[in-house]
Q: What sequence folds into this?
């Protein structure tokens, strides 16, 4: 009985179907979403001879990828900064995002054959406008690397066992049997859209393994529900730009967000509302708050006041209809107690004040959200303070790694949460051989490497020469492996290094890398070694 490989048309057969069967994997990844797939791919690229297994309780992988962005998958954004995220500290988030940056993400997907296009909002989508393009590319790379996917394999429990030598192994348990592995990546997601499989069980598994979870776990990027009978619910279907302001009842401002807003039969949705939702939930948990909307986001109260005073015999209704949807304009007049045929000159001071408030500070009587069922992401999770950000490894349990939504990181709408998934998955996936001494040891066993260039050009000595490489040469080669290069044998049986796309690392690339200190600067920038990338970098001076 084997952990049979994986997918035909997304339909995987059970690969651990004997109750209480126990097998071994070098890397076990629980959760096959965006972060889990990236972790698997980078584990496979840096450990090509290892057995990597993805366990997922769903019958089909990538459900969230397929529904994201209206079925188009908003892969990332044109500009990604720590300010686009909340949860753990911005500095911690920055460290992870810097390991696989937005440009490197674009390059990674280009390597997989997925070209991205920019929309006016800054969102990046596949040029096909199909999320399926993204998922199939990821699964294709998973299959190319020989990574095994076990669908319908929900993990019920995980036990960490430490032997007398201090080595930890993980026993992953489910109705299908047991899987034992020295490395475990939890990429289970949070609690959002539980029908896709992220029902919060991964957070419980993290707690059982000794991790603390943030005191609050709540939905983010979720529509807001207004009180029953709220006037705005009569305007379902209207979409318009607005500026939302969240403040304490004392008037102290908490958050201001501008963007598109959609009125629904239950309340509010649209990008501005989704971004505001996590702030409303967090703030309203322990204090009274007030959420208002400015229906003319580029205009302030003083300007509207002046406009109304200058209307003269013009209709107030006409003034509003020039700027707002008809139904909303009429509702604002109704709330301000202004007749539909009222002219500017006939407005009383009381009516004018009411109308300015209705236009620029419309009170939104929010009673709650639509919950995790429709939330796009989870706020809260495993704090990054409990994770070594160089490897996404637990600071408490050696060999345990985290990536994706299970972490206490949530981004605003626009591809930012996918970028976190790609970046954290990239960091979590590669093996602990990223430790330089471990790599050097393995390279020492291999002997000197032939880098695909002549012995006179190569910083490594050709195998045929029979000479041992210098420590600097071995360190350079080790750092290449550390940056994502793979050790392989060519057609003649010589050991060579290839970049993450499978192309040999040639003398041109090695010349651009230059000395070991320059390579260190390159790695500190989080670069994954790639011939094309180094061509763009130019001379080694540009690395400093």
A:
């Amino acid at each position: 009985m084997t952990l049979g490989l994986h997918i035909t048309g997304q339909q995987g057969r059970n690969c651990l179907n004997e109750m209480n069967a126990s097998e071994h994997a070098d890397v076990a990844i629980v959760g096959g979403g965006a972060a889990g797939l990236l972790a698997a791919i980078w584990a496979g690229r840096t450990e090509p001879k290892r057995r990597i297994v993805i366990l997922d309780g769903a019958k089909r992988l990538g459900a969230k990828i397929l529904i994201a962005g209206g079925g188009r998958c908003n892969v990332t954004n044109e500009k990604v900064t720590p300010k686009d995220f909340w949860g753990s500290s911005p500095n911690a988030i920055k460290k992870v995002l810097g390991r696989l940056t937005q440009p490197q993400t674009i390059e990674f997907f280009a390597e997989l054959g997925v070209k991205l296009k920019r929309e006016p909002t800054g969102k990046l989508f596949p040029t096909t406008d199909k999320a399926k393009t993204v998922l199939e590319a990821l699964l294709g790379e998973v299959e190319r690397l020989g990574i095994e996917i076990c669908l319908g394999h929900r993990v019920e429990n995980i036990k960490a066992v430490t032997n007398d030598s201090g080595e930890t192994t993980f026993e992953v348990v489910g109705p299908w049997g047991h899987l034992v592995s020295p490395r475990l990546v939890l990429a289970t997601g949070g609690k959002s859209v539980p029908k896709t499989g992220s029902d919060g069980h991964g957070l419980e598994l993290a707690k059982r393994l000794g991790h603390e979870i943030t005191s609050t776990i709540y939905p983010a990027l979720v529509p807001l529900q207004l009180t029953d009978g709220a006037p705005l619910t009569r305007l379902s279907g209207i979409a318009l730009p607005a500026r939302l302001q969240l403040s304490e009842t004392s008037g102290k401002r908490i958050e201001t967000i501008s963007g598109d807003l959609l009125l629904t039969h239950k309340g509010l949705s649209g990008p501005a509302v989704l971004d505001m939702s996590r702030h409303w939930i967090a703030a309203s948990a322990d204090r009274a708050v007030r959420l208002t909307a400015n229906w003319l986001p580029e205009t302030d109260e003083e300007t509207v006041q002046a406009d109304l005073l200058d209307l003269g015999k013009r209709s107030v209704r006409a003034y509003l209809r020039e700027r707002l949807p008809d139904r909303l304009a009429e509702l604002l007049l109704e709330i301000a107690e202004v007749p539909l045929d009222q002219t500017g000159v006939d407005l009383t001071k009381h009516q004018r004040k009411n109308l300015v408030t209705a236009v620029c500070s419309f009170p939104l009587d929010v009673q709650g959200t639509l919950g995790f069922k429709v939330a796009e992401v989870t706020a809260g999770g495993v704090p990054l303070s409990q994770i070594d950000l160089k490897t996404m490894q637990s600071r408490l349990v050696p060999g345990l790694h985290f990536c994706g939504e299970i972490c206490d990181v949530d981004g605003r709408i626009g591809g930012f949460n996918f970028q976190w998934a790609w970046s954290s998955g990239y960091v979590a996936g590669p093996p602990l051989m990223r430790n330089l001494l471990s790599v050097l040891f393995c390279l020492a066993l291999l002997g000197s490497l032939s880098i695909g260039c002549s012995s006179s050009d190569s910083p490594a000595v050709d195998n045929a020469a029979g000479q041992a490489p210098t420590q600097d040469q071995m360190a350079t080669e080790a750092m290449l492996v550390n940056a994502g290069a793979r050790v392989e044998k060519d057609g003649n049986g010589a050991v060579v290094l290839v970049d993450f796309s499978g192309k040999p690392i040639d003398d041109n690339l090695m010349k651009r890398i230059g000395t070991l200190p320059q390579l260190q600067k390159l790695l500190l920038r989080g670069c994954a070694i790639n011939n094309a990338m180094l061509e763009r970098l130019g001379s080694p001076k540009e690395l400093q």
